[in-house]
Amino acid sequence: MDAQGRTVHKAPAFRGSNLEEREAAVLARMEGAAALERDLRCHAFVLPALWTLLQEHVMAEEDVTALLAGSRFIPEDRMNLFASGFAAGFRHDFATALHLLVPQIEHALRAFLARAGVITASIDEDGIQEE
C-alpha cells in the first residue's frame, strides 16, 4: 500500500506447487525485510549521528571539500559539485543534494570504470554513440 492506501504491489503466495512462484515469494519477503532493516538502521544510527554532527558543527562546502580531497572516486573537475551536493544534504536540502549528486555519481562511476579498462559507451544500429 502507498501513503494514500492504494494497492501498489502484491507479493506472490508461499503456497502452491509452482517452484518459481514460491521462489518469487521468498525473494519478495527478503526484499521487504531488507528495506525494513535499512529504514530502521537509518533512523536508529545514521540520522541521529547526522543531527548530532549538525548541532555541533556547521558543514560548509569548504569543509566538505577537505573531507572529499584525495578521493579516487571523485573526478577532480567535479569536486565542487560533489561538495555542493553533500553540503546541501548536511543542510537537509535533500532535493538539491540529489539533483547535484545523482548525475555526478553516474559520471564518477563511468570515469572509474573507464580507468579500469571497461568500455562505457555503445553504438546503436543508427551509429549513435551513448555512454
**End-to-end separation:** 36 Å
DSSP strand count? 2
Report the portion of residues in β strands: under 5%
Spatial extent as radius of gyration: 21 Å
SSE succession: HHHHEE
Averaging pLDDT over every residue, what do you get?
A: 89
Based on Cα principal axes, name the global outline.
flat
Structural class by sheet pairing and helices: mainly alpha
Report the biggest beta sheet as strand number plus sense, adding barrel if it closes: 2 strands, antiparallel
What is the topology, as strand order, of the major beta sheet?
Answer: 1-2
Number of helical elements: 4
Low-confidence region ranges: none
Helix content: 55-70%
